[in-house]
Amino acid sequence: MISLVAVSLSLLPFVASQSNTATGIAAIKAHFTQSHIVPDLFDSFNPIAVLAVNYPGVGDITPGQTLTQAEAGGYPTITVTAANSSVDLGDTFTVAMVDASYVGQDDDAVTRHWLLNGATLGDGTISNSSATAITEYAGPAPPEGDPAHRYVIAVYQQPSSFSAPADFSQANMGVSTFDFENYLEDSKMGALVGATYITVQTGTATTSVAATSSVDSATLSVASGTAGGSSGTGTRTGTGSAASSTQTDNGAMGLSLGKFSVVLGLLGFVMA
After folding, report:
1. pLDDT class for 130, splitting at 50, 70, 90?
2. Element (H, E) at 116
3. What pLDDT, in 10s, does the model give residues 8-57?
């Protein structure tokens, strides 16, 4: 009887973890829509994992968190948590940070602040120990007077078919503008793993932008927020398949609820 209680209680953290990750996926998708990153940068956005980005002296950021240039100047650490246990994240990744400018700007050319090929994953954390830094991390530097710029940090699966375009095959390129969509297509980049963003502004904005709404996590639909498989590159720079995502969402949610029901059933049996 004691063993049954132990087994039941041991499942509770697993169920809670699955639920938290599903909520995190739903939240970041809502943030990207309501901040107009979709469609300003991504035509669609179906992450298969949640990214936790940690800046020295700041800690883990929340999506869209406002930072100063100094706060965002340090090299960030990225932790990746898969949407569910059926997701295969892969073992080699490309990391990018691009300036999506302010709300309403959707130019094909964006400023590249970080481009890392051949990154790996160790204990859930992105490692650059064997990676090639095409562009070393360079903190945000939005023009003074602009509204807050959205700096998107994205992690992509880097498949064996990946081949860096000739113009982006050498390390230590400086910060410059480039066509992010073309880069992903030309390099045969894999699926989007996950992304998040920060906002940075210098001085007082002299240009007005369209209003955006905040995200209330209590109103999120978890079933529609958990991304599934990692096949396909999708439309523009957002990757993945919406159809397969919905199927996996429902399956993942059903799995979590099923395990929770088992836990409650076992506890009920023991208490009886």
Report:
1. very high
2. strand 109-122
3. 334 434 444 556 888 999 999 999 999 999 999 999 999 999 999 999 99
The CA-based angle 126-172-198, given to 5 degrees, is 50
Question: Measured between alpha carbons, how far is 27 from 9 in angstroms, rounded to an integer?
Answer: 28
Rounded distance between C-alpha atoms, residue 91 and residue 24, angstroms: 22
Of residues 244 and 193, which shows the higher confidence score?
A: 193
Q: Greater confidence, 164 or 229?
A: 164
pLDDT tens per residue across span 117-128:
999 999 999 999
Measure Cα distances from 226 to 8, 191, 206, 233, 259 in Å: 25, 15, 38, 17, 17
Q: Are 58 and 71 in contact (CB under 8 A)?
A: yes
Distance CA 258, CA 98 (A): 40
Calpha distance 214→65 (Å, rounded): 12
Residue 230: partners with Cβ closer than 8 Å, 6 or more residues away: 48, 87, 88, 89, 90, 157, 190, 191, 193, 240
Q: Identify the DSSP state of 188.
A: T
Helix/strand/coil for 23: helix
Q: To 5 degrees, how large is the angle CA 113–CA 194–CA 152? A: 30
